[in-house]
Amino acid sequence: MINSPDPASAPLVTPPADAGKDADLATLLAEPAAPIWYRRPALWAGMLVLALTAGGLWWWQARRTANAAPNYSTQTVARGNLTLTVTANGTLQPTRSTSIGSELSGTVLKVNVDVNDLIHKGQVLVELDTAKLRDQILRARAALAAATAKVAQTLATVKEARAGLARLDEVARISAGQLPAGTELDTAHAALERATADAASARAGVNDAQAALALDEINLSKASIRAPSDGVVLTRSVDPGNAVAASLQAVTLFTVAEDLVRLRLWVYVDEADVGSVAKGQDAHFTVSAYPSRQYPARITRVGFGSTITDNVVTYLTYLDVDNSDLSLRPGMTATATITANQRNDVLLVPNSALRFTPTTAGDGQAAAKGGIVASLIPSRPRTNTRKSAAAGASTAAARQVWVLRDEVAVPLAVTPGISDGRMTEITGGELEVGMLVITDQKTAAAK
């Protein structure tokens, strides 16, 4: 058995002197030692890449959230004045116009006035040829004279018959009824009665002749057509030499306006607006001749009878107009604006706010808030179970508006009043001055 030498008993060997120099050279030529883990460059590079990726994702998510959020157009609630107006079209007419015609047939001899002439009551406007009428008057006077002579003749006959009857009565008295015969007395009585009847007929003939003469004289006076009142001639449809044929109705020769200082505007109000129009309301109107000038007017009558034109029902309404400067003329077309109602110092909101309803932007916002994973996971269909804020309002006309609070659309119940087509009066509800009502919504396009 071979025994290994004891290390303790082994003799110490001393290295040579140049051994230290060899060890230092080996150390310089060997590989460097491994650095500590937190000093490794790859770790910091990886962390930098992760940070940049996270920052990019955060920026992209923020942009997406901003793009998905709705952008509202708002208007501040304020108090003001509101006027409800009704617009209607019509034409200007004289307050009273007269059509002057002729009751007689004949030939026009002379025309004394023309269009736009001022005329006065009783003034002769037209003269007809009166030759035939004068001849008729002469014949009527002759007939009257004959009837008068007939009366004198019958009266003489009556006187003669009465005298004959008186003589016979005297004879009968003297002869104690012996003479004359009874038939002779009856004949005398009948002759007297006949003469009396002839006298009455003659008197009636005189009255008839007098009436015929008076009629012919009236016709002669009507041959000179006179103005019934003061006024202005608007139209003329007759010239000297024209033949006038009056048959069943009088022929219109002139149209005369009694007074152009006061005119009347005839407008036709639509059936949808007639409930807001009443007698005594103020209005103003314009005409094409003076488009920049507004004329005042006042309603004097709203017709109950309807007028149907192209299946549109309208009601004729009269407005009195002051035309002291005579700038307006009958027949002009006018556009009238009637002040149907007026409210002062009331709460006003634009009509677009009453029509506004926000779109369903909540899904996009929820997806944006949930992050990328939430946006990739399909969501369950959502049902709109929100109850209208105006559902519990006290009046049937209650509605709602949406106001902006902390960038969130909130509904408020309101009760609207009258509207002028642009602004609406708010008569009740939760709306207050200074609130921002939403009038429109715009969602930015996603990028």
TrEMBL record:
Q: What is its main location?
A: other
Annotated localization: Cell envelope
Query: Which UniProt keywords are given for this protein, alphabetically ordered?
Result: Coiled coil
Cite the InterPro entries for this sequence.
Beta-barrel_RND_2 (IPR058792), BSH_CzcB-like (IPR058647), RND_pump_MFP (IPR006143), UPF0194_transport (IPR050465)
Highest taxon of source: Bacteria
Q: Which residues form the CzcB-like barrel-sandwich hybrid domain?
A: 98-252
Q: Name one GO cellular component term.
A: cell envelope
Molecular function per GO: transmembrane transporter activity
- Domain CusB-like beta-barrel stretches: 267-341
Specify whether Coiled coil is a keyword of the entry: yes
What family, per the record?
A: Belongs to the membrane fusion protein (MFP) (TC 8.A.1) family.
Q: Which NCBIfam families match?
A: RND_mfp
**What PANTHER family does this protein map onto?**
EFFLUX SYSTEM COMPONENT YKNX-RELATED (PTHR32347)
What name is this protein filed under?
A: Macrolide-specific efflux protein MacA
Origin organism of this chain? Candidatus Accumulibacter phosphatis
